[in-house]
Design brief:
By secondary structure, the protein is of the alpha+beta class. It has 18 helices and eleven strands. The chain folds into two domains: 52-67 and 309-524, MetI-like (MetI-like fold, Orthogonal Bundle), CATH 1.10.3720.10; 93-294, no CATH class. Strands 1, 2, 3 and 4 form a four-stranded antiparallel beta sheet that branches. The protein starts with a helix and ends in a 10-residue tail after the last helix.
């Protein structure tokens, strides 16, 4: 049907006569040209999954770079050997039952008494040994957060025993330790105690038949080791040794070292010839000693790792190292693959066949073999990270080169390319000005998808122990997973945080790459939904 006939079918009331030159509308039409990247960004924003993935990636990157700046108490080298593998703890969040440093525990009777005894001894500042279990449970330093009703069970010897389920605060659970300090240090601790009101020094324990483990400073009460129930407290009243069972009203009989006047002994000379070198053996409440040393209470929002580092700082360092390796590999593979694939696809023929055979030979080399050999023979000379980069780059660019080659075969015989060649354009200009931009969407997508692949491969190599990227100043996500692999059932936070981070990075980079593919697709340029 012609246009004229189409117009004739419209009813006459739809038309309106106007004078020549009359302005019909004030509406202005935006006919400005849209730039290539602006148009790509407009299409990218329509992919909601890719936008969310990009936001998550940005958040993870900000976490990696801002965590060391915001964490004023610790740095990446701060380590505490007594607070290894500890649960997340934050003083503010602990008020709401979150990050309270607690972990679920099932206690035997002897283990429960020993744990509760930490709070009793911490409150017994006068060393009288007259506090009950109930009083000790109210102590600030009491490790027991809550305790459930005991559960009966049958052990291997078919004896009926009780198990006490509960939740314990692992930072208080350390309790007391022995330490050797100089005389001057001892005096400074005493002065600090008087100034702050926090007690660090506690009485030494008498090494006698009622001290079952002379290396454990938490057995301050008289106890004897029994075959059937472990180390149990005893009473020596009337000269008779009587085993004490757990109850809220029980009192533990102290076994403190005392002088001839019956006063508790707080230090013992162990060597040294003058006031500056004299060494004292002391028994300290470690939680308060930590505050004395550092000026703040222990707070680790993600807990501590297997050797006592702040896990949030280790995780931030692992993210930076893993992303650095992945981004460097992606950029290098992009450059090598783009040049190699462009030459293959544009010239074709003998050049293409020759270069393809080289690619086939390199592609047949197993990556894990290359990475292992490089770590064995090259890492000692150039370092673990550069040797890992070499392993990734050796064969990593082949996929990008193949995609570029395919795109060049697709576009090199298009009319606009032939027109440019007819007008005398050089090969270099045709490759990079006319064909390459049309291949950019596919190339950028493949480069973005290299990043999660590298993170996954690096994590696998570190997890298997092939690559050693852990150290005092830096680590990787894979190394964190490897360190937690044998102990994560007891300390799940060591595995959960690195695993979630790796999963988010790999999923989000894949979604982000898909969004880039659509955004840089030249066939969709200017298309509106």
């Amino acid at each position: 049907m012609s246009i004229k006939k189409d117009i004739s079918l419209l009813p006459s009331e739809k038309f309106k006569f106007v004078q020549e030159g009359t302005k019909l509308s004030d509406k202005k039409f935006d006919n400005k040209p849209v730039g290539y990247f602006k148009d790509a960004w407009r299409r990218f924003r329509k992919n909601k999954a890719s936008v969310v993935a990009m936001c998550i990636i940005i958040f993870i990157v900000l976490f990696a770079f801002l965590t060391p700046l915001l964490n004023t108490n610790y740095d990446s080298t701060f380590k505490d050997i007594y607070y290894q593998k500890k649960a997340p703890r934050n003083l503010f969040l602990s008020q709401f039952g979150i990050c309270d440093g607690g972990t679920n525990r099932s206690f035997s009777e002897s283990g429960l008494i020993k744990t509760i005894a930490v709070g009793i001894a911490a409150e017994d500042k006068q060393s009288n040994g007259d506090l009950t279990i109930a009083q000790g449970l109210k102590s600030k330093y009491q490790p027991i957060l809550n305790l459930s009703e005991p559960v009966s069970y049958i052990d291997g010897a078919k004896n009926e025993k009780l198990s006490y389920p509960g939740r314990v605060e692992v930072y208080y659970e350390i309790g007391f330790i022995y330490k050797s300090v100089e005389q001057e240090e001892y005096k400074r601790i005493v002065e600090w105690q008087e100034k702050t009101g926090l007690q660090v020094l506690y009485p030494l324990i008498e090494e006698n038949e009622f001290y079952p483990d002379t290396t454990d400073a938490n057995y301050w009460y008289k106890a004897v080791k029994y075959k059937d129930q472990g180390v149990m407290p005893v009473s020596t009243a009337d000269g008779l040794i009587k085993r004490i069972s757990y109850s809220e009203n029980m009192k533990l009989e102290d076994n403190y070292m005392r002088d001839n006047d019956g006063n508790a002994v707080f230090y013992q000379y162990t060597g040294g010839g003058n006031i500056n070198t004299a060494q004292y053996k002391v028994r300290i409440l470690y939680y308060n000693y930590y505050i004395y040393q550092n000026g703040f209470e222990p707070e680790y929002i993600f807990g501590t790792d297997s050797v006592g580092f702040d896990l949030s700082l280790r995780l931030a360092g692992g993210i930076k190292l893993s992303l650095l390796i992945a981004v460097c590999v992606s950029i290098i593979n992009f450059i090598i693959g783009a040049i190699y694939g462009a030459i293959e696809g544009y010239y074709g023929g003998v050049v293409d066949i020759t270069l393809e055979r080289v690619s086939d030979i390199l592609a047949g080399v197993p990556f894990i073999v290359v990475a292992t050999l490089f770590q064995i023979h090259l890492a000692a000379k150039v370092g673990a990270v550069p040797s890992l980069l070499f392993a990734f780059v050796l064969t990593g660019w082949i996929g990008t080169a193949s995609r570029v080659r395919t795109q060049f075969y697709r576009f090199k015989n298009q009319e606009y390319v032939m027109a440019a060649r007819t007008l005398g354009a050089r090969d270099r200009r045709i490759i990079w000005k006319h064909i390459f931009p049309n291949s950019l969407g596919t190339i950028i997508t493949s480069s973005a998808l290299v990043i999660p692949g590298v993170i996954g491969a690096e994590s696998m190599l570190s997890y298997l122990g092939i690559v050693k990227l852990g150290g005092t100043n830096a680590t990787s996500l894979g190394t964190l997973l490897s360190d937690a692999s044998s102990i994560w059932t007891n300390f799940p936070h060591l595995m959960v945080f690195p695993a979630i981070t790796i999963s988010l990075l790999m999923i989000c980079f894949n979604l982000f790459g898909n969004g880039l593919r659509d955004a840089f697709n030249p066939s969709l340029r200017g298309v509106e939904d």
